[in-house]
Design a protein that fits this description.
This protein has 347 residues and is an alpha+beta fold. It is built from 10 helices and 9 strands. Helix content is 38%, strand content 19%. The strands form 2 sheets. A 7-stranded mixed sheet has the order 1-4-5-9-8-7-6, sandwiched between helices. A two-stranded antiparallel sheet has the order 2-3. Strand 6 and strand 7 form a beta hairpin. The termini are far apart. Bound molecules: 3,4-dihydroxyphenylalanine (DAH). The site of 3,4-dihydroxyphenylalanine (DAH) has 11 residues, from strand 8 and strand 9.
């Protein structure tokens, strides 16, 4: 190894070179790469200096080591300092580029609504649930017995003609009314009974107000001392919640084989408030459902003592209520899934 003076000169050249190079670096990655080349113990300008110790005369070794260590410390500090500075800048740039303006209005998410018939069904379920009713889910495929015979509609009864039935076999059919659920409930439960039964029903019927498949909600209460007054009181609560507080109910005599007496329930027209309009066909009243006191024959057929218990029943057409409530004049609109219609109804 040459004189120490020569070493000093070499080291100051290295310092100068490193100092210059450092000014050209643009990222922490570049600092890392450059540091690796300089400090590499075999090939690095500083890292390899110690390898030359062997060539240094004994008496100069200490001084040589000291100077090499000094430049090593200096370089390490320079790299660390630049690395910290670069990393700070990079972080700042990242924050800047990833910055989001939380005050910007968000993209509008198009949201759908429940189908109007579902909305009405849910509302009716809520009303009767709040009156203490539980829900019975019936079967869409029924036997002739549950759909007709047990409801006091024997084989040759003219009431069968009121409902054009889809028969699956002489015994099985698609239920034409949720009333069939009444029989299942009364056969399996002793009074007090208080259920509603929503579901699909099927009839071979097709025009502006009828669809081959539609939904009904059956109601059944059986207990001691149940009368038509209980029915009227309960239905009053129901129609007020559905059509508005000033809606009145009116019972008109009617006929259903499974109720005696039977009634049709009208509500005062919620559009014209009873004055007469197109919706109520000038009468001031709109028919909304059928109901009555459960026929003793039906109770007895299910093993319920009709001298001890009496019952009331009602059947609501869900699509009909939806059509009245939302001013829909053709039932087909409820089955076509046209978003221009469905988008208007969020109740
Ligand atoms: N099941 C009848 C129909 O579909 C509706 C009905 C009327 C149900 C009177 C009842 C009732 O429970 O009491 O036309």
């Amino acid at each position: 190894m040459a004189e120490l003076g020569e070493l000093s000169e070499k080291l100051s050249l290295i310092r100068q070179e490193i100092s210059e190079e450092l000014t050209k670096l643009n990222s922490s990655k570049e600092v890392y790469e450059y540091r690796k080349t300089i400090m590499d113990s075999k090939t690095g300008k500083i890292g390899s200096l110690m390898r030359e110790m062997g060539k240094v005369p004994k008496e100069l070794k200490a001084e040589y080591g000291k100077q090499v260590n000094e430049i090593k410390t200096w370089a390490t500090e320079c790299f660390d300092e630049l690395d910290t500075k670069m990393k700070e800048e990079e972080l700042k740039a990242r924050y800047e580029s990833e910055k989001i303006d939380v005050t910007l209005p968000s993209n509008k998410i198009r949201r759908g609504y429940l189908h109007p018939a579902t909305q009405v069904r849910n509302q009716i379920v809520d009303i009767f649930a709040s009156l203490g009713f539980s829900i019975y889910e019936g079967n869409e495929i029924e036997t002739d017995y549950y759909n007709f015979t047990a409801l006091n509609i024997p084989k040759d009864h003219p009431a069968r003609d009121m409902q054009d039935t889809f028969y699956l076999s002489p015994e099985f059919l698609l239920r034409t009314q949720t009333s069939s659920g009444q029989i299942h409930v009364m056969e399996s439960q002793q009074p007090p009974i208080k259920i509603i039964s929503p579901g699909k029903v099927f009839r071979s019927d097709d025009d502006a107000t009828h669809s081959p498949m539609f939904s009904q909600m059956e109601g059944l209460v059986v207990d001691k001392g149940i009368t038509l007054c209980d029915l009227q009181g309960m239905l009053d609560v129901f129609v007020k919640k559905i059509f508005g507080d000033d809606t009145k109910t009116r019972l008109r005599p009617s006929y259903f084989p499974f109720t005696e007496p039977s009634v049709e329930v009208d509500v005062s027209c919620f559009q014209c408030k009873g004055c007469g309009c197109k919706l109520c066909k000038g009468t001031g009243w709109i028919e909304v459902l059928g109901a009555g006191v459960v026929n003793k024959k039906v109770l007895e057929g299910c093993g319920i003592d009709s001298d001890v218990y009496s019952g009331l029943a009602f059947g609501i057409g869900i699509e009909r209520i939806a059509m009245l409530k939302y001013g829909i004049n053709n039932i087909k609109l409820l089955f076509e899934s046209d978003l221009r219609v469905l988008d208007q109804i969020d109740d």
